[in-house]
Write a structure and sequence with these properties.
Structural class: alpha/beta
Strand content: 5-15%
Largest sheet: 7 strands, mixed
Strand order of the largest sheet: 4-10-9-8-7-5-6
Shape: globular
Order of helices and strands: HEEEHHHEHEHEEHEEEHHHEEHEEEH
Distance between the termini: 32 Å
Number of strands: 15
Number of helices: 12
Bound molecules: pyridoxal-5'-phosphate
């Protein structure tokens, strides 16, 4: 493998042009788009427009004239196209954590008599915390978190389980789950499934409708590039919409919010999952960021994502100075998402030393170096250069310098 191989792959890349849709800092190879996507050019333009013209100029009229009021639905429908959801089932709103509260409540209400919420031990902590909060709120006879390993999951599906809560792609290892097969196995036992798409939406083809998924949540600031703290999204299958209700029944989810009536009447359809006023500025930025996906397919994105990570794996394996890094993500491309995880006892310091040299990766406790491959703005030559920087960090032992072990609040 040489830089010529990387250049050849770049010449054949059908997504080479989307890089121009983003601002990318100089002298940086950004391998952390799985945590915070880069800034799309049109998102920056929209931020100015929404602040200066819409807010600054048109003020309150903008709720109607710029359709601010419909944004949770219109932005939700843009996301729906990326996740295989027909119209009328997806909303952009709140954070994953808050949306999980709404969906967990809705699912538990549909499943009276079944107290268990089953999830995996390695699931993203906020997903588990939200169930724990619900457990202390409702009491364990109504909600009980049960955790299992991946291998035990299917044998743990039984008539006590109300909801199976899973991440589509494991945030540490990058392992991907078979959405269709697992959803089917859960349904066979009368269990509803909530999928967390944080690490798959925008980078992996998803077929929520075709897989008969019940509920889903996902993130706006990772592969959707909506900016720090961008609102998240939720999905409720059409077949549940007539029967579900959720307890965060704020005025935006009311049938007629501007009637100001004293009694809550849920909106028809998925809008009943709205609570408060949408964050118009950040939702506008996400809205503009989503236009980057126009004219390209998720199959193209997926192919490039796997080509980038496979190229990276091969470069690491061929390097004599990188033998201490052990890959914990699946080697089989079909079994992994768009990031790779390597275990190393000094992963934190190594990560800091890389960042100091312009290769931005991240660290996940206790000992994982995580590298994300965002196909919309990474080139194969970037991958090649990032591995050269990793070699320098390891062969020089520079990561041992004390400064690289100082922990920040965000890792
Ligand atoms: C990033 C991420 C979240 C983030 O949740 P928020 O409440 O939106 O901050 C949740 N779940 C998973 C799996 C994630 O990767």
């Amino acid at each position: 493998m040489s830089i010529q191989d990387a250049q050849a792959l770049d010449r054949e890349d059908s997504l080479a042009n989307t890089r121009g849709d983003f601002y990318l800092p100089q002298d940086t190879i950004y391998l952390d788009g799985n945590s915070l996507g880069c800034l799309p050019v049109r998102a920056r333009e929209r931020a100015r427009e929404v602040v200066e013209q819409q807010w600054g100029g048109d003020l309150i009229k903008s709720w109607n004239t710029h359709n601010w009021i419909d944004m949770p639905v219109t932005v939700g429908e843009k996301i729906a196209k990326l996740i295989g959801a027909a119209p009328g089932q997806t909303l952009c709103c709140d954070s994953i954590s808050v949306n999980l509260f709404k969906l967990l409540s809705a699912a538990l209400l549909l499943q009276r008599g079944r107290p268990v919420v089953l999830s995996t031990r390695n699931n993203f902590p906020t997903d588990l915390y939200m169930v724990q909060g619900m457990e202390s709120f409702l009491g364990r006879d109504r909600c009980q978190l049960q955790l299992c390993g991946y291998e035990e999951m299917e044998s743990a599906l039984n008539e006590q389980v109300a909801v199976l809560l899973l991440s589509h792609v494991d945030f540490r290892s990058g392992q991907i789950f078979d959405m269709r097969r697992i959803t089917e196995a859960a349904h066979a036992k009368g269990i509803l499934v909530i999928w967390d798409l944080a690490h798959s939406a925008g980078v992996i083809p998803i077929e929520l409708d075709a897989c008969k998924v019940d509920f889903a949540v996902g993130c706006g600031y990772k592969y959707l590039n909506g900016g720090p703290g961008a609102p998240a999204f939720l999905y409720v299958a059409q077949r549940h919409l007539a029967d579900v209700c959720q307890p965060l029944c704020g005025w935006m989810g009311h049938k007629a919010p501007f009637d100001f009536s004293q009694h809550y009447k849920p909106a028809e359809g998925v809008s009943r999952f709205l609570s408060g006023t949408p964050p118009v500025i950040s939702m506008s930025v996400l809205d503009a960021a989503l236009d980057v996906f126009e004219g390209i397919t998720l199959a193209q994105i997926r192919n490039k994502s796997l080509a980038l990570s496979s190229f990276f794996i091969r470069l690491i394996e061929q390097s004599e100075s990188l033998g201490e890094l052990s890959l914990i993500s699946p080697r089989e491309p079909a079994l992994r998402g768009s990031h790779l995880a390597y275990q190393h006892s000094a992963a934190y310091a190594v990560c800091q030393a890389l960042i100091a040299r312009g290769v931005v990766a991240d660290f996940r406790a206790p000992d994982i170096l995580r590298l994300g491959f965002s196909p919309l703005y990474l080139r194969f030559v970037d991958i090649w250069h990032s591995v050269r920087v990793m070699e320098t960090v390891f062969s020089s032992g520079i990561w041992r310098e004390a400064a690289y072990s100082e922990k920040s609040r965000v890792t």
